[in-house]
Amino acid sequence: MTTTDVENYPGYPNAVTGPKMMNDFQQQAERVGTEVRFGLVTKVDFSEKIHKIWIDDEKLIQARTVIIATGAKAKWLGIPSETRLNGSGVSACAVCDGFFYKGKEVGIVGAGDTACEEALYLSKLCPQVHMIVRRSEMRASKIMQDRVINTPNIKIYWNSETEEILGDKKVEAVRIKNNQTQESSEVKIEGFFVAIGHEPNASIFKSYINTDEAGYIITEAKSTRTNVAGVFAAGDVQDKIYRQAVTSAGSGCMAALDAERYLAEHFHYNNRVKSIEKILKDKENKVEQEHVQLHQNLSVVDLASLGIAAIIGAGVFSTIGSACADGGPAVSLLFLGIAVACGFSALCYAEFASRIPIAGSAYTYAYATFGEIIAWIIGWDLILEYAIGNITVSIAWAGNFVKFLQDCGVERWLNQMGYEFPYYLTTSFLEAQKNIPELYATAPQLLGIPLIINLPAFFINFLITVLVYIGIKESKRFANGMVVFKIIVILIIIGIGIFYVQPENWSPFAPNGFAGVIKGVSAVFFAYIGFDAISTTAEECKNPQKDLPRGMFYALIIATILYVLISLVLTGMVHYTQLNNEAFLANAFTQIGMNWMGGLIAFSALIATASVLLVFQIGQPRIWMSISRDGLLPKKFSEIHHKYKTPAFATIATGILVDLCSIGTLFAFALVCAGVLVLQARDKKQPIQNTTPKFKVPNINGTLTISLLWLV
């Protein structure tokens, strides 16, 4: 506080100097346990939940809440005498210092509302106020201008600029120049006030905190909250209207209360529950802060397509057979029952989606009802469903790909050419090590390490990740295309098969009774997994409140109709006892002389598996994005790509997680080799006795090993 005396602060009837007031404030704060630290704040980082502040570029302070009260500094004219006479007649606050010039002539420079207010205040204390205005009109509001112009003891010098403030030890006069005639003149005064505006001390925060065009920090209405959670602003740094010690103290008290409430809501309770309003507000603040949001491009047709893409996966070409073998034709009724059960769940999703159109699915819904702990658990459960499940799906796609190549005769062609099919490039390392010892023993090796990697799984996941990364619009186009292809194939199966149905195969309808039908529940329910994934795209829907519920129900209805029809047709074409094998569809058509259907079914299984992988790859990054918004994951996971409008980092992380399953062992070997390099570097700096020899075969060390592993 640079003002000499403060006369309008409660508790100081005889006025008080600025330094004395600040010292009293400090003593009061320390008496109640406040730790006071002195230094210059040189850098801040408000990007995480725990805020960081550096003092003098060295000392780091970390805090859950920060109150910015850095004030505002007056703008000055920039003339030497202004600095020399500051405090000796020159001031930037007429309300603070005007009383000292009671009965004396003073000057004031400025043309805005603040200058007019201070000129009017001084006119009540001083016999003459000389007001210097640079232009032929003021910038102040019309009503303020009229009041100044009509005040008899305020003399206005239009088109004038301050050249110099005259006086040795105190202000004696001011020399002004008319910028139209270029004539200079001196005006006798004893006080000079600069009122050309203020500049808030907020520049160090601009990378994180929203400010207005004048640089003042923007706070929420009737609050001191800024756009960054846990950061509050009080005093002149956010107040460009009043700028008084009393009002600053009041807003400081408000900031303390706001900070206390924030801590109570976010940290004092082990299981905080977020209100729906808070969830929606946090999302709006995130968009406002980053000036980017997910692209709203999905219609109800797109949502239904994504739902069908997730529901009708490879299961329709594999698991339905085992269910039919257990329950017979009555399994078709089981599909209806499971669909009704899923429909009830879809109704609940619809209720939430209409009230919380946020891309967090069950995680966000749990946060709004059961609290953070349950939300955290269900969030990681969704990660198991999507990210970890994608590992299984990508491996299943690789298996279907190999089978498709075999059905196309690729393996037979390679054998005729004198080559063997490279199974070591289509199998995971751990799978070969545990279950295929002959492959593990015969695979090519590098430095004693079998080169076994599931390349098809790696590349399908890589391609899907790239597709999801570059945009939801491109993803929906591929999803729509794959869904259309799947439905056409299923309709072909139904359309051809219906002509070969033998009604006697439907008798008995439930050969193993109710127990046999129920035995197929797990396989049938598995066929419906994934319809909830479309709720993760809530922020990318054109109208989430209406389209999300409709999309879910359309997907369930269409999938159920297709499941019921295909189960009835299959059990009518062949006896249910012949369906308990993976190739039940192909076998059914082989029996009626349509061997060519086997290739179409194998290719359809590839498309079906890829569509499931696509939907789950869309869902997982958006779950991570929502968890990150709540501060339960690093902020990087909630970043949205400015060009593609997708959660870029979370998408890449999901793809890497799945691909690590294919190259995980090689990655582990590479890390071990990198560790050897670190140890060797440490040994050079701090020699220790080494009981094992250096790895040299000849002149090959860890560096070359790592390079070769990654090249492979």
UniProtKB/TrEMBL annotation:
Every FAD/NAD(P)-binding domain range: 31-252
Topological category with respect to the lipid bilayer: Multi-pass membrane protein
Keyword Translocase attributed: no
Keywords of the record: Membrane, Transmembrane, Transmembrane helix, Transport
Segments traversing the membrane: 303-323, 329-350, 447-471, 483-501, 513-531, 552-576, 596-616, 648-679
A molecular-function term among this protein's GO annotations: amino acid transmembrane transporter activity
Any Pfam family hit: AA_permease_2
Any one GO cellular component localisation term in the record: membrane
Gene3D superfamilies xref list: Amino acid/polyamine transporter I (1.20.1740.10), FAD/NAD(P)-binding domain (3.50.50.60)
Coiled coil (UniProt feature): none
SUPFAM superfamilies: FAD/NAD(P)-binding domain (SSF51905)
Compartments, record wording: Membrane
Location (main, coarse): membrane
UniProt xrefs under PANTHER family: CATIONIC AMINO ACID TRANSPORTER 4, INNER MEMBRANE TRANSPORTER YGJI-RELATED
This protein's name: FAD/NAD(P)-binding domain-containing protein
Gene source species: Darwinula stevensoni
